[in-house]
Amino acid sequence: MNYMQLLDEIRINVSKNMVGKQKEINLILIAMICGGHVLVEDVPGLGKTTMVASLAQSLGCTFRRIQFTPDVLPSDITGFTMYNMKSGEQEVHTGSIMSQIVLADEINRTSPKTQSALLEAMQEGQISIDGKTYELPRPFMVLATQNPVELVGTYPLPEAQMDRFLLCIHMGYPDEAEEVEILTRHQNSAVQPALKPVATAQQVLLLQEAVDHVHCSDAIKQYIVRLAEATRQHPDVHLGVSPRGSIALMRASMARAMIEGRGYVIPDDVQALAEPVLSHRLVMTAQAMLEKTGPLDILKKVLATVPVPRVSS
C-alpha cells in the first residue's frame, strides 16, 4: 500500500469541507496514525465539528457526536443493561462511545464523574458495563472540544485526563481570503454533500502498524528526554512532562516523519510537535500564572536552550 498517496487522498478529501487549516488537518492525521486522541481548544464556530465529521466520512468509519451537558450520565457514554420483559433476559445497550470516531463536544461542561467514563475507553480501548468488559471498535479515536474562554458552569479537566490526549490543538481564526472563501461556499442554503470515503478502517489500521517501522535514533530519544527533563526543572513549572508525554512526543514525531515521506525521525519533527504534544501536560506554578507565564512560553525557552542533536539518516 502506498501510504503517502493514501494520506494525501485523506487530506484532500477533508479539505473539500474545510478552508485552509492544513496544519490542523495534518495534526489530526498524526494522531490518527498514532492511534491517539485529540483535544481541540477554541471558541465556537471555527469548524471543529466540520473537520472531525469530514475525517470520519473520509475514512468510512462510524461516527458519533456526544454533546456534553451537566446532565449527561456515565451510562450515556458507556451504556447500560435493561431487563427485557418479553424475553426475560438482561439486554445490553451500548452508549455513544461504541463508535470508531467520537466527537466529545464541550467536554468540560459535564461532571467529573462523566468525564472519567471516557478514561478507560481512551486508554484501554474497552468499556465496562455492569462488570462485563466490551472491546471498542478499531480504529478508535476521541476528538474532544472545549471552550477555553467561557468558564461559567464548566468542570476543568483534571491532569490525569488531559494526559490521555496525544495532542492539544487550536483552530484559530481564518485569514481574510479564507473567510471570504467560507462565505462563498455558504452563500446558498444548500447543505454540503457528505464526503465519499477514500480509505477503509482496515487501511487506517495498516497505517498504525506502518508507523512502528519508522526509525527513531537514540540521539532523538535523548533529545526528547532532555526536553522533558528541562520542563521538570524549570522554576515556573509545578508539574513537568511525564514519561507518558515523552512517549507521546516520540510517537507523534514518528508519525510526522511518515507523513513527510521519511523512514526516520529528525529534530525538526520533535520541534514541530513539542507545542501540541506537551503544552497541555504542563502545570504552571501559582506565581507563573499570576505573571501570565504560560506553557507555550516555557516550551519556547526549553527548545531554545536544549542542544539539538545532529542526526543522519
UniProtKB/TrEMBL annotation:
Residue runs in coiled coils: none
Domain ChlI/MoxR AAA lid: 230-288
Keyword DNA repair attached: no
Spans through the membrane: none
InterPro entries in UniProt: ATPase_AAA-3, CbbQ/NirQ/NorQ/GpvN, ChlI/MoxR_AAA_lid, P-loop_NTPase
Keyword Nucleotide-binding included in the entry's annotation: yes
Keywords: ATP-binding, Nucleotide-binding
One GO MF term attached to the UniProt entry: ATP hydrolysis activity
Domain ATPase AAA-3: 37-167
Entries under Pfam families matching the protein: AAA_3, AAA_lid_2
Family from the record: Belongs to the MoxR family.
Protein name: ATPase
Organism: Solibaculum mannosilyticum
